[in-house]
Specification:
Layout (H helix, E strand, L loop, with lengths): L2 H4 L1 H14 L19 H8 L1 H4 L2 H10 L4 H12 L4 H8 L2 H5 L6 H17 L10 H13 L12 E5 L5 E3 L2 E5 L1 H8 L14
Parallel strand pairs: 1-3
Antiparallel strand pairs: 1-2
Organism: Arthrobacter oryzae
Keywords: Isomerase, Pyruvate
Protein name: Maleylpyruvate isomerase family mycothiol-dependent enzyme
Length: 201
């Protein structure tokens, strides 16, 4: 197992632990808005746990039904499977199948990025600490900036990023300061709860 892949399991297990703990809260975290536009927390969890739930044949059938459009497939599955019992979704977050999964052509890099970015979609929206290991967050920051924002189409020309919880920094120009997790979300095209965003390129 690569170092990148080794950070996937603690990220998803931490997310499961967080959502289990929120069951004692006075509000329902599962139905809170996430940082993913139009998705609630339960939609995000239904999305990331697809690999633990769908066989390759089932995934192929879903893709055929979506006429090859992965965005359509994702929205369809996230909407439908968000209605599954939360206990089932929690079990799937803790599944070794999910922890070993890699997106087609994405390898460990894709698996880690998917886990970290979507975990932050939940934790930041719920105003909870990040569940991904700090080294995993920093690695994803490096991956996103190495791609110069192209993964999510954000414009990084004349932008300097500085993490407030580590010595990580990148670029030059207009200063954007936030903790590492929030910087990952900004680089992933998300809008933070305080309204901050990085414009699209």
């Amino acid at each position: 197992m690569t170092e990148l892949q080794s950070w996937v399991a603690p990220t998803y297990n931490g997310l499961a632990d967080l959502l289990t703990a929120t069951a004692v809260d006075a509000w329902d975290a599962w139905d809170a808005p996430s940082l993913c536009e139009t998705w609630l927390v339960r939609n995000v969890i239904a999305h990331v746990t697809m690999p633990a739930r769908l066989t390759p044949a089932q995934f192929g059938a879903e893709m055929a039904a979506a006429r090859g459009d992965f965005t359509v497939l994702s929205d369809t599955v996230a909407t439908r499977d968000a209605a599954l019992p939360t206990a089932d979704l929690l079990d799937q977050l803790r599944s070794p199948v999910l922890h070993a999964w890699q997106p087609p052509g994405g390898g460990g890099t894709g698996a880690l990025s998917h886990a970290v970015i979507h975990s932050l979609d939940v934790t930041i929206a719920l105003d909870r600490p990040a569940v991904a290991p700090a080294a995993a967050v920093t690695t994803v920051l490096d991956l996103l900036t190495a791609a110069d924002g192209s993964w999510f189409g954000v414009a990084l020309t004349d932008v300097r990023l500085e993490a407030t919880d580590s010595d990580w920094s990148w670029g030059s120009g207009q200063l954007v300061r936030a903790d590492g997790g929030r910087l990952v979300s900004l680089l992933s095209g998300r809008t933070l709860p305080d309204g901050r965003t990085i414009p699209r390129g």
